[in-house]
Amino acid sequence: MSTPMAVFGTGYLGATHAACMAELGHHVLGVDVDESKLAKLEAGEVPFYEPGLEEVLKRNIEAGRLRFTSSYEEAAEFADVHFIGVGTPQKKGEFAADLTYVDAVIDTLAPLLKRPAVIFGKSTVPVGTAARLGQRARALAPAGVEVEVAWNPEFLREGFAVQDTLHPDRLVLGLDRERPGRAEEVAREIYAQLLDERIPFLVTDLATAELVKTSANAFLATKISFINAMAEVCEAVDADVTVLADAIGHDARIGRRFLNAGLGFGGGCLPKDIRAFMARAGELGADHALTFLREVDAVNMRRRTRMVEMAREACGGNLLGTRVAVLGAAFKPESDDVRDSPALNVAGQIQLQGAAVTVYDPKAMENSRRNFPTLSYAADVNEAVEGADVILVLTEWKQFCDLKPARLGKLVRQRSIVDGRNCLDPTVWRDAGWNYRGMGR
Ligand code: UDX
């Protein structure tokens, strides 16, 4: 069955959700306040890099199932089912999440509703937000118009967003238990195809659904910081954290995924989500429960400092006047996202210590230039490494993992490489005469 729906926000989350819901056969209106983004989307162009999304977007625009608008009036007129997929960034100078955009969707949409509506939140929010938004929506909707707020968190990873949306590990739906309504029935209709494929569907209360998302991200961040803490210990005794991760990862209770030690996590989700989680626990008087997340954050940030130290060591103890090539700017491969990018953070710190830093990334150049205009950027790997005293591999793009040491050796001033993602084979590089350093190995 095809359901007309509106999706608010056309960033990584909203644009993917809108296109994938159309792919499932629904009629979808994507809504955003940013006209330039809308113009691109309407032309079938994804405003960011996400493998596979453009095909889905174009196919569904051509099929007449997907459109975009900046008009909330049009959205209220068109759909009775609404998804909130706007951002919840970290507030400036604090740990808490900034809920301005989520609140704005409710404040603008609710007064315009003319028929009963179900609003599903997908954004990552502090627990308690859904209940508050429900109250707000009911207060703002015209008299006699029933409006329901349910929470349906999103677990997609950038780089795999289409796959994760169309074939999720699970679907989670949080309902307002005090006001039984139609949200579950509507969600079952919308996701019928996925439910037919026996994707687990967990129905719960609003607070649990919000917490599922926050705790999943906290767990992933903890797993990464755990292995990076082991990397610190490995560094102290010359042990190899990559072998350690392989060995403990064979235990099915632990699992090998998300145990890659290196420069640590960045991006628009994990760092700000663990901080917002701590801030919210504090407001709830449960801060003691999450003090360990402070350490998770600290271990993660220490990796960046350690990388700067390793670059300095590789340059003989002083970065002043050296040339440093930085390969990678995106917070992870298969993305052009540079939000809280460990790579650019390190590049910036090294530049502050007096090095001439040249950055190259296959997809994130435009975003990097905009956010870090003082760094130098190269058109390709060769240009970036020309005359370098040290090469830093800070994002594990496949093209960097496949680099040939003999060829690069002819371009650099010193054969020195620091592998911030442990994605290179130390033996191959050392055999080719390079001074190879990995993180925790
Ligand atoms: C994350 C969650 O995975 C996703 O479920 C949630 O919906 C949003 O946040 P994303 O930010 O796209 O997704 O990236 P992810 O693949 O989780 O990587 C996050 C960061 O951790 C990257 O900087 C990555 O380089 C780093 N990472 C990941 C490691 O350092 N080691 C690992 O083993 C795995």
From TrEMBL:
A molecular function (GO) term: oxidoreductase activity
Superkingdom of origin organism: Bacteria
Domain UDP-glucose/GDP-mannose dehydrogenase C-terminal residue range list: 325-426
PANTHER family registered for this protein in UniProt: UDP-GLUCOSE 6-DEHYDROGENASE TUAD
Name of the protein this chain belongs to: UDP-glucose 6-dehydrogenase
Pfam families named in the record: UDPG_MGDP_dh, UDPG_MGDP_dh_C, UDPG_MGDP_dh_N
Enzyme Commission number(s) of this protein: 1.1.1.22
Keyword hit for Cell inner membrane: no
Cited SUPFAM superfamilies: 6-phosphogluconate dehydrogenase C-terminal domain-like, NAD(P)-binding Rossmann-fold domains, UDP-glucose/GDP-mannose dehydrogenase C-terminal domain
Recorded family membership: Belongs to the UDP-glucose/GDP-mannose dehydrogenase family.
Alphabetical list of NCBIfam families matching this protein: NDP-sugDHase
Lineage: Bacteria, Bacillati, Actinomycetota, Actinomycetes, Mycobacteriales
SMART domains referenced in this protein's UniProt entry, alphabetically: UDPG_MGDP_dh_C
